[in-house]
Design a protein that fits this description.
single chain, four-stranded antiparallel sheet, three-stranded antiparallel sheet, about 40% helix
Length: about 130
């Protein structure tokens, strides 16, 4: 039997456990804190933001069709019964929304609502990650 104590770093980096005499002793409070923290990488945060945002748009704006060009960078929202100029584009990499200056007032207003919700989702995910 080994009498030395050593601390081993877990990949989560939120807690450590001590291995003594070949038996692992886990600090339960640290483990619970780690689970509560939901440590997320930047990529995971971005994917979660996109997922929540697209769910929001799908639920709140049923009159908009979603068009993913296939390149993975841009998603377009266009009204089912609208003009070609009434399009809202969402940049996945920058998490940014934009619309044309000459789009209808309704489209501009919808874009502002989407931007507000996107900011709330970003803040919510950042708060969860801390």
């Amino acid at each position: 039997m080994c009498n030395t104590k050593r601390t081993i770093q877990i990949p989560c980096k939120c807690f450590k456990f001590k291995e003594s005499r070949g038996i692992s002793l886990l600090n339960k409070l640290s483990y619970i804190e780690c689970i509560k923290k939901k440590v997320m990488t930047k990529t995971q945060k971005q994917k979660e933001t996109i997922k929540r945002f697209l769910t929001f748009v799908d639920e709140v704006f049923p009159n908009y069709e979603l068009d993913d060009c296939g390149d993975g960078g841009r998603i377009s929202f266009f009204p089912i019964n609208g003009k070609q100029d009434d399009i809202i584009e969402f940049q996945r990499s920058r998490l940014d929304l934009c619309t044309l200056n000459w789009a209808s007032d309704q489209t501009k207003q919808d874009c502002m609502v989407m931007e507000g919700m996107l900011k709330l989702i970003k803040k919510e995910i950042e708060d969860e990650g801390k």
